[in-house]
């Protein structure tokens, strides 16, 4: 859980520092994967009943929202790349 969640932040920083648009899109894909993995581990903790309460629900909601944001951003970045290629 710690590895995937801290990887989200580190890879997002790397994406923001991407040298090219394809580099940005690729690194954003890694961010999306790591965010989804973090959500997976939170769901596993919930399903195993290892964590309960309002804090768990808040973390699950935030992880789900962040995964959705990164997924949408990654799709947009890929669409922008396709658009740029079509203009060449």
Describe what you observe in this structure.
It is built from three helices and no strands. It is elongated. The model has no long low-confidence stretch (mean pLDDT 94). The protein has one domain (2-86): de novo design (two linked rop proteins) (Up-down Bundle). It has 88 residues and is mainly alpha-helical. It has helices at 2-16, 21-47, 54-86.
Give keywords:
de novo design (two linked rop proteins), elongated
Tell me the strand percentage band: under 5%
| Largest beta-sheet characterization | none
Q: What is the domain total for the residues?
A: 1
Instruction: Using the coordinates above, name the CATH class.
Output: Mainly Alpha
SSE sequence, one letter per element: HHH
Spatial gap, N to C terminus: 43 Å
Mean pLDDT: 94
* CATH topology (level 3) name: de novo design (two linked rop proteins)
What does the radius of gyration come to? 15 Å
Write the layout of secondary structure elements.
Blueprint (H helix, E strand, L loop, with lengths): L1 H15 L4 H27 L6 H33 L2
Summarize it.
This protein has 88 residues and is mainly alpha-helical. The protein has 3 helices and no strands.
